[in-house]
Amino acid sequence: MKKRILLLALALLLAVSTVQTVNVEASARTISWIVSVTYQNVGNAPTAVQVAFYQEGSATAITYDAGTLNAGAAASFYMGNVSDISAGFRGNAVMASSQPLVATVVQFHQNAPGETVKMRMLSNGFSSNDGSEQYLVATVLGNTFSRTTIFSVQNLESEEITATLKFYNATNGNLDSTKSVDIPALSSKYVELDKTSMTGLPSTTFNGSVIITAVKKGTSNPAKVIAGASELYTNRDVGANFEGVPLSRASNKVYLATALCKRYGLDTYYAVQNASLTESATITVTYYNPDGTTQTTDGPYTIAAGQKKSITTCAPSSGLDMSSFTGSAVITTSNPDSKIVALGKAQASMPATPAYADVFTIFNGEPSGYSKISFPFVRWADDARFKSPTNYGGYQRTYLAIQNLSATTLNVDVQYFGKNGDLVATQTLTIPPNAKVNSDANAAGALGKNGMSPGAFGYYTDGSFGGGVIVVPSGGTSGAQFIAIARVQHPGAGEDYNGISID
Question: Which CATH architecture has domain 4-125?
Answer without folding.
Answer: Sandwich (2.60)
